[in-house]
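User: Please predict structures.

Assistant: First:
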Amino acid sequence: MPNQYKSKICPQCYTEHRKRGPFCSKVCSNKARIVTQETREKKAESMRAFMNSGNETAEKIIWSLQATKEEREDGLPLPQTPDPIGRNQFVSGGDLWTQDD
């Protein structure tokens, strides 16, 4: 059912649209949002709680934030991640291929 909404002007970018709500897109809606200091503090607190939770994803983020390209500041090497491509395998055109010797 096209054109079921009346024509409106987006208050952020001033484009005409026939979508639900006052904004033409999620981007315009987010740009018009006012983020208070209280909201920032709540987000920061929840991020601190996540980073200190011991979650595997949080640990990877912490390592990547502390690490330089070759090694961490304290001289310890970065944890090794397994290579997703095995021996005699290569990626071509988005596909994983195995090559026989």
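Second:
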Amino acid sequence: MVNDRISSFDAFLECKDLSINDLLEKLLHSNSIIQYEAAKRLQFFQYKEIIDIIRNILLTSRYSKHREIANFILGQIQEELSTTELKEIFSILIYSIQSDKSIKVKSSAISSLGHLFKKYNLGEEEFRTIENNISSIWNMNRYSIIISIAFSSAYFPKRNYIKEYLIKNLNSKHHKIISWVLYGLKEKHYESESIENLLIHKLSQFNEKSYIYNEIIAFLISISSKKVIPYIEKILFTQSKIDDEIYTELKNNLSDEFAELRKQLLEEFK
């Protein structure tokens, strides 16, 4: 019987020296922790060594978990991919987004697109080849898909409709969604008064000691929002510890508006 409580490190040790065929067995017949460690190990093989099992076994499986993992593998293959291989992977990921009925499979494919755009520093030319084919994702209001899009949007070229999609999902009640949306906004330098006002309003909805409250404060510092200054002052005056992200953003913000706060920060929290 497989131990469902195995740690990620133990799963890593179990998979690190296995052959492709043995890793495939782990993918097909193990729990989720071992499956993903086996998938990560497969990412260190060459594309041509693993594409047959991905295409002919994992992607054709009736189990959505296998198809989800197949898309996960394709997004982070460690060996350098050729242009032809990238195009093949794009075709597979787009097919999964368009045709697979599983939300988790679609989410995995979207995240993998983001990883590929990040790793290969892809831009306008490459995005235009897939843009129309992934247009359906902007209307998919599902938790895991929103997170995947928020991540990938950090590496897709700038688009007004992507910016509006991210702003819309700042209204989410899920902290993790808001966190990833902030990541996408920050990485792509999407800024506007509407974003600033929405985030200032949202501060009243969260506990001051919650991670999402701190992430919003840090983001507002990163865009030099004057409206966040009273909130920073309260943190500096009332808390004995300060969040690392807030500390870093305030320390590195050299604008005049934050000069006094920056000075106080460095005196209080050396």
